[in-house]
């Protein structure tokens, strides 16, 4: 019986084609607008590293001045000073530890057809790659010994490696970067992390920035007194010289700690509190503010990666979908009302209200399926237009299988909901009255 009613629904699309087309288009536009907005929100708020997000932590200790500070105020900054970052690196807390700051290095290629250019990247530690599950195409990251000695080694992104060396494996070769010779030890494969949780701070597009092009040891960057390519916060005057800057309370380094399991969070918090107490004995951390730990999802929330504007846009899109459904209800009422004589005859011949209800509801489902296909095409078009606006939007304006299934489910459910009232009204037809009017 379902198959019979479904075929009737398909045939009904040819009745009143203008009215049917208007229903399908109204439903499709509403679904496309809401799905396109929801897709972007879904990608932006997704878990970028689900297998580790509960055991990767950002530690924050507040080293701001105590003047005008009140308990509960926001921390001085969301980064750490060089002193705190190095102390955490040298500690034995957690399974892995890393420190990150942005660098921009002029690259002088060996190839004569490529002129000098500046590559953006990170100064970090060897633990970085295992902590964040960075995929390698060639080679590997550098060793703890390289971290300790500040060796001039470098890991390239796949894009930069192909630009400099084509498809060849460049591991073992040396390249001139920032005026120094670096030995290539690894090449990362394409690494698309959305949102890019470890680079929320210090890049132009924040959590939706492009891949970094190269990675060098943190200690090597410090040894060469490299300048920072990112945000720096200093609340007091700093004496001239690079060492004076390192000794200052300026915050410019992002720290991450990986624990063995999520249950080790309490132990990590205890360590951080003990560290702060020791530093206060040395005359630092005068605010005595709470020491904070954020796992990946908490960090993204704290940094407002998905802002209120994005959430408001999603609600407005769903409001537009509701408006489209109201219009669809009106169109279905108009379509079903002209079929009252047909319903009356079917009722007189023995059809029950339940059978009439089922038939008309399946017909609205067919409308929903057609509207879903058209809505999906419109959603793809809308996302393509959004992706053209900026490189950052290119990372989030794409649809995955979850949203693909959601699009069809939303279209069908919307059509079914819109068809409940018209279908119920169609079932209330009195056979005697309709037969007398014929």
Automatic annotation (TrEMBL):
Keyword Transmembrane: yes
UniProt main location, coarse: membrane
Transmembrane segments: 21-44, 312-336, 356-389, 401-421
Stretches assigned to the ABC3 transporter permease C-terminal domain: 316-430
GO molecular function: transmembrane transporter activity
Topology class, membrane: Multi-pass membrane protein
UniProt cross-references to InterPro entries, sorted A to Z: ABC3_permease_C, MacB_PCD, Macrolide_Exporter_MacB
Subcellular location(s) per record: Cell membrane
Segments forming domain MacB-like periplasmic core: 20-231
Origin superkingdom: Bacteria
GO CC annotation: plasma membrane
The keyword Lipid metabolism belongs to this UniProt entry's keyword annotation: no
Keywords in alphabetical order: Cell membrane, Membrane, Transmembrane, Transmembrane helix
Protein name: Putative ABC transport system permease protein
Originating species: Duganella sacchari
